[in-house]
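Request: Have a read of the protein record below and say how the chain folds.
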Amino acid sequence: MHLSNITIDVDGSPSGYVAWYNHCTEKPGFRALRPPIKNDRYGVQRMEMLAIYFALADNQPQIKRLASGTDTRQIVVNIRSDSKTCIEQLQGVSKVRDAILRRICSSIRKLIDKMAYMIIFIHLERARNHAGLLLEQRRRKEIEMCIMHQHQKQYYGTLRFSMDSFILTTA
């Protein structure tokens, strides 16, 4: 029997983004969701759970393609997250206390029940989470774009004003 591993790192951001990185295909995935309410007690954890859900849902075709090889193949899907609470809740070690989180967990369970593969939830350090690093890079680019936009708006706004006054004085 040949054992095949698929490892997927997942991460969620309070700014409303979820990301996953499939190590087998070396492809990332992003989704922009409605961000949670600020200072919501379970907001960040909900985003982490949604990241797990979308990682499983988005990677189903790749997992099926790998599994369609031969009958002797056994597929193990490793879902890795830096949220220890989410991992423990999905493993059944910790209790899910939030109603919305319970609904997300139940959706993940339904998705897993449809899969004939072994799904293992693993906690890993934040620094080793590829999806988390991708989210950080995306956030940095957004900040850079915002700063550039503000700079251009300020620069070209004053330039336009001075050009308008130049045209008025020369006319």
DSSP finds four helices and five strands in the chain. The chain has a mean pLDDT of 84. Strands lie at 2-12, 17-22, 27-32, 73-81, 118-123.
